[in-house]
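Fold this sequence, please.
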Amino acid sequence: MTKRFLASLAFAFLALQIAAADAVKPQTLPPWTRGTLDIHQISTGRGNSAFLVLPDGTTLLIDAGAAGDGTTVPDSEPRPAAAHSAGAAIVAYIHRLLGDDAHIDYAVLTHYHADHMGQVTASSATSASGAYRLSGITEVGDRLRIGTLIDRGDAFLPPSADDATFANYHAFLSEQTRTHALHRETLRVGRADQIVLRRAASEFPTFEVRNVAANGDVWTGTRDEVRHIFPALDSLSAEDRPSENMCSIGLRIRYGRFDWFSGGDMPGVPDAGAPAWQSVESAVAKAIGPTDVHVVNHHGSIDPESAEFLQTLRSRVMILPAWSATHPSQDVLKRMLSTRLYPAPHDVFVTTLRAPTAASIGSRVSQLKAQHGHIVVRVAPGGATYSVYVLDDIDDDGAVVATFGPYTSE
């Protein structure tokens, strides 16, 4: 047996080892490229958070929830592990995605609930300056500089003055404005010039972020016109006054033919006997019309995704940011999966389907495209097509566990 033969045999064996290693190596999400729109629904098991990389590299964070931060809410399952706070998990995700270029140009808080902004508890760490505690958006903003933070403001039905989480949020705003030039704005409903491409807007003329709703103001679908759907507050009984969820911010993104909508916790099915105007979804649906992808309102809890909303949007893809055992409710999922409301195919992806929920849903579980994971919508340059990736949320590597599409934008 010659040395040349032995060498070639060794080389072949090494090649087989490399091939075998590549075969078991987890697939990672291909890097974002210029012209692509990335929408990442991040699974932390403790609330809602989405991170978007817009076509020119401008970044947008929508919510940074931390309900009890995994410590005081018994029905939460922190991802990737209880050792990580939700804020830290969100920051780690952004760093993994963007590397040294991790940044947040815009952050939007849809409304002032813990699972969307972060709850302050006795165990919440304190910032280095001691000015505020770290939970959800305050922890994210402490670790990654935020350029502009947009919320629903303080003028319309703000949380009570003794709300510790809201008070902490204001302390964060004050300190970050003073030390890091954070700019806070109230959402201007109807406008498409508040969240804009900051790096190369002229190169992507078909891209738009439209402010659809907040505080009972809803875009009409025409120019920048807005109508107010809530009655005068002094005309309402205490039980009929708008809730925090009803005040949620709604945003629509349009990129060529592609449309995406996210509406926080806005309701669509009023409680029995409640007035019809409490269905914020109805007014929103009339404004935005057919939509390729939408984030399921209120985590698929008991009051969103009305028949009218689903029939009007006719979404090909629905992303359900669940974290509690009450997400989604059986009735809501039944409506979402129905082919009677609209017969065209539609796929439902869930970020965290809890075991008790799966048991209560029964056979409908098999109709879900994903039961847990980060859900990524990647829209091709120009917006004509998009794909959906499901990423592992148990480990920190974000491996791709499933890919769907490409879908054609309508």
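The first strand starts at residue 37 and ends at 41. The mean pLDDT is 92.
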